[in-house]
Design goal:
There is one protein chain. This protein is of the alpha+beta class and 540 residues long. It contains 13 helices and 24 strands. Strands 3, 4, 9, 10, 11, 12, 18 and 19 form an eight-stranded mixed sheet that branches. Helix 8 runs antiparallel to helix 9. The longest helix is centred in the middle third of the chain and has 29 residues. Bound molecules: flavin-adenine dinucleotide. The site of flavin-adenine dinucleotide has 34 residues, from helix 1, strand 4, strand 10 and helix 7. Flavin-adenine dinucleotide binds next to helix 1, strand 4, strand 10 and helix 7.
């Protein structure tokens, strides 16, 4: 069977529908584990209109695991580009306020992580993931292929695929299928899984722009983002894409559907510039619906959902794709464990239990940011050259600076998510630490991301995790019983003996069992029944 000259396997372990950032991350994680997967996408792979731009610290940690962090850092986004935020009536108008942030070069890496966040537009990020998928011998990526339908039985899933050039049809059998097919997921709809939440926070329009000599066309200085406020309140934001000539103007819209036919894109850009002779080119116009939706469940039998197919959120926070990549990492090892026979079916059920609350948390944060942007209601005097206008501009500027600070300083949001009610983590009875979006305090409490610390050989503790369970054992702690139980159950397992007082203090228990995704499954002293412990954490 062929796709042009490229064969399409008829049989695979996991069929992934959708090669956006989330499907690619899943294919990469599965391939990295030696699991066979076929990832298909109905598009060509060209990213004409990049959406994501911020790669979170957690996603960078996963990129580090996959050996991609250096490539993402070297993506081409200028290291010295100032990541400031400017609030103004227009680029030629009044400045309401500004929040100055360091460039990627000057941004320090927080002590809690080996990887700070990175600006990298989707048009560069996805190809980095794609290249890595293509280098995995067990992963097959095909574009121009649409999933039309599927059926599942006790043994697997059969996906019906169509080649969009030529129309050839293929049936692919897989043990599992994952719908990474975006917000209007056909996989989700076919399963009859409802989306709960706010279907339309606003109807927005993205304009992708080419702006030569951007900096010389105004006096506001270079910034990562400009927020524009007029008599109607905040109405748009202009966001850097590649740090060069490419920018994106997002017109926030309203809760009424915008009529694209009567929408004047050029006029919107001129309003943002505040001048009629601005030099720019509109290269793409994409209307979209800003929503906060959560699938009622992320699994139905042998079919699972990840990324926007499972949850949507306002981009105000830059968490959509980053949350989806976390889904992929949660799912990758679980699918591998079940396919290899050392993981039980309950491991796949734990996927919804773990990921759904985390997606709800990120989505609520993102909507909160959007509401803060659009909170100012009576802005009629915004453009007035009066003391009333001046006071209003100062007040809106302060409010926006406060709200964007929440959005920007979000290490707790990025790293502090935890699997509190997970059926495959064993609680240790300690109370959950405060869930603060701005502040992140590392903890090895079960369900949390295992802490980062530098090891004497220059590696991060995070570099120990990935391929199997790792028992972090302080010197003198007895790891033999767990080791033997893991051997009996054929669970990939290794012991890392902690020789460093700082690491021991961070892990805060003689034995800490870390899962392949880098989350803590259990911690304590000797476990009375290591076999039962391993049965629980591997979903048996
Ligand atoms: C303006 C804007 C800015 C954003 N900025 C950020 C940011 O900075 N950081 C961040 O993390 N997120 C951001 N997001 C959100 C982010 O874009 C999405 O969360 C992310 O793209 C979701 O990835 P995905 O892989 O789940 O889905 P998608 O990217 O939507 O990919 C789904 C893929 O599935 C394919 N597909 C669909 N149906 C089929 C089918 N039947 N057969 C075959 N293929 C199919 C599609 O062709 C598509 O390629 C932003 C969003 C917007 C709108």
């Amino acid at each position: 069977m062929t796709n042009g000259f490229l064969a399409i396997p008829q049989q695979t372990d996991v069929l992934i529908v959708g090669a956006g950032p989330v499907g690619l991350a899943l294919a990469l994680d599965l391939g990295w584990r030696g699991i066979s997967c076929l990832i298909v996408d109905q598009g060509t792979g060209d990213i004409a209109h990049p959406r994501t731009g911020l790669v979170s610290s957690r996603t960078m940690e996963f990129c580090r695991r996959w050996g991609l962090a250096p490539a993402v850092r070297a993506c081409g986004f200028p290291a010295d580009f100032p990541l400031n935020i400017v609030f103004c009536t227009s680029l030629a108008g009044h400045t309401l306020g500004r929040a100055d942030y360091p460039s990627m070069r000057d941004l320090p890496t927080p002590p809690e992580t080996p990887e700070k966040k990175q600006r990298c537009p989707q048009s560069w990020f996805d190809p980095i993931l794609r290249g890595a998928v293509e280098r995995q011998p067990t992963a097959t990526l095909r574009h121009g292929i649409r999933l039309d339908s599927f059926r599942q039985d006790a043994k697997g899933v059969a996906g019906e695929l169509t080649e969009l050039t030529g129309g050839a049809r293929h049936t692919v059998r897989a043990s599992y299928m994952v719908g990474c097919d975006g917000a209007s997921s056909q996989v989700r709809e076919s399963l009859g899984i409802a989306m709960e939440g706010a279907h339309a926070l606003s109807y927005s329009i993205n304009l992708l722009l080419r702006i030569p000599d951007f900096a010389s066309q105004h006096d506001k200085g270079l910034a990562e983002r400009y927020l524009f406020a007029g008599r109607q309140g905040v109405w748009a934001n202009l966001t850097v894409v590649d740090g060069g000539e490419t920018w994106r103007l997002t017109v926030l819209g309203s809760d009424a559907k915008m009529d694209l036919a009567s929408f004047d894109a050029d006029a919107a850009v001129r309003a943002a510039f505040g001048q009629d002779d601005a030099r720019f080119e509109v290269t793409s116009v994409v209307p979209w619906r800003r929503s906060q939706l959560l699938a009622e469940r992320f699994r139905e039998g042998r079919v699972l959902l990840a990324g926007d197919a499972a949850h949507t959120m306002s981009p105000t926070g830059g968490m959509g794709a980053n949350t989806g990549v976390q889904d992929a990492v949660d799912l990758g090892w679980k699918l591998a464990a079940v396919l290899r026979g050392w993981g039980g079916d309950a491991l796949l059920d734990s996927y919804t239990a773990e990921r759904r609350p985390v997606a709800a948390r990120a989505a609520a944060f993102s909507t909160g940011n959007f509401r803060a942007w659009t909170a100012a209601k009576d802005c009629a005097a915004m453009l007035d050259e009066t003391s009333e206008g001046e006071a209003l501009r100062a007040q809106v500027g302060r409010t926006l600076a406060d709200s964007t600070q929440v959005e920007w300083e979000s290490l707790g949001l990025q790293l502090g998510y935890r699997y509190e009610a997970s059926p495959v983590c064993v609680p240790d009875g300690t109370p959950p630490p405060a869930d603060e979006h701005a502040r992140y305090v590392q903890t090895a409490r079960p369900g949390h991301r295992a802490p980062h610390a530098w090891l004497p050989d220059g590696r991060s503790t995070l570099d120990l995790f990935g391929q199997g369970f790792v028992l972090m054992a302080s010197s003198g702690a007895n790891s033999a019983a767990l080791d033997a139980a893991a051997r009996r159950r054929r669970v990939p397992f290794s012991v890392h003996r902690i020789n460093d007082a700082g690491v021991a203090a961070l892990y805060d228990a003689p034995l800490v069992l870390v899962r392949p995704d880098g989350h803590v499954a259990w911690r304590g002293d000797d476990h009375p029944d290591p076999d039962t412990l391993l049965a629980i954490v591997t979903g048996h």
